[in-house]
Structure formats: C-alpha cells, structure tokens
Design a protein that fits this description.
It contains four helices and no strands. The radius of gyration is 18 Å and the shape is elongated. It has helices spanning about 10-40, 50-80, 90-115, 125-150. It has about 160 residues and is an all-alpha fold. It has two domains: about 10-80; about 85-160. The chain is about 75% helix and about 0% strand.
C-alpha cells in the first residue's frame, strides 16, 4: 500500500483554484445563457451579445469539467494528504463528506448544463437548484478552511495556497 502524501501536488492545487475561479466567473455569465435558452425555447432569435457570453459560459463550464476530472484522476493516482493533526473523527468524516459532495455537485452542474444547452433535456431548473446547493457547500467549505487556519491554526488553508 502506498502511504498517503504529506502535501498536495502543485497540479492539484492549481486545478482547485481553476475550479474556484471558473465557478465564480459562471455567476457573471448566468443571465446571458438563461436569455439565450429562453429565446430559443420561445422560438425567437437570441441577442448576439447574449450568444457570445453564453458560449463563454459553456467554455468555462467545460474547463471546470476538465479540471474536476483531472483533480479526481490525480487524487486517484497520487492520493491526498490526510487531515490536519488533531482533527477529530467527526470533523474528518464531515470534511471527507463535504469534499465528495463538492465533486458530485460540480459534476452534476456541468452535466445538467450540458444537457440543457444541447437541448437534450430541459434541466435548467435542476441546474439552478444544484447551483444553490453548490454555493452553500462551497461557502461552508471556505469557512471551514478559514476556521481551521485562523482558529485551530492547523495549516489547512495554507496546504492549498499555490507555490510560485
């Protein structure tokens, strides 16, 4: 059995922040893609500017998908460091569950977005619901990282800071 690594690989760290940035960017492109899909469903021509930004939304979503798959592949191949010292069993279980939930939500977001955009299935409402769940899961994740770094002083947040 291969021992757990003591730190994240640089690629794991960078992919993490690419996903974070991608998710934040998607908020800005939301209205355009909703407008395009709404226009197409109503049999109308969408505004050209909305189409451009909708394609940016699709491109960023595709980037998120590639980054999440790459992160999962790296995690499967090389593992991930264990929880910080003095992490209780309950905290470790919650953290592991949250990480799994974030991966599932990210993949579900991309899948429902792709199915809606390609007009295979009208899952815009489901996509939005997953978006809300992802927002709160990511917020809890970020707050937990800050709490562990500032209050517990266990170095959790610093493990995901890119090294230049």
């Amino acid at each position: 059995m291969i021992p757990a690594p003591t730190a994240y690989r640089p690629a794991q760290i960078w992919l993490h922040w690419i996903v974070v940035l991608g998710v934040i960017l998607q908020i800005g492109f939301h209205d355009a893609i909703v407008a395009v899909i709404g226009a197409l469903e109503a049999g109308q021509a969408p505004a050209a500017a909305d189409v451009t930004w909708a394609w940016v939304h699709v491109g960023v979503g595709s980037t998120i998908l590639v980054a999440v798959i790459a992160r999962l592949a790296l995690r499967w191949r090389f593992g991930a460091p264990g929880h910080a010292p003095d992490t209780s069993a309950l905290q470790a279980r919650i953290a592991s569950t949250m990480h799994g939930a974030l991966y599932v939500l990210l993949l579900a977001m991309v899948a429902t977005g792709m199915l809606t955009w390609s007009a295979i299935a009208p899952l815009g409402g489901v996509h939005f619901g997953i978006n809300v769940a992802l927002f709160f899961a990511a917020l809890a994740h970020a707050l937990a990282a800050v709490f562990n770094q500032v209050v517990r002083r266990d170095g959790t947040l610093m493990r995901m800071v890119p090294r230049f």
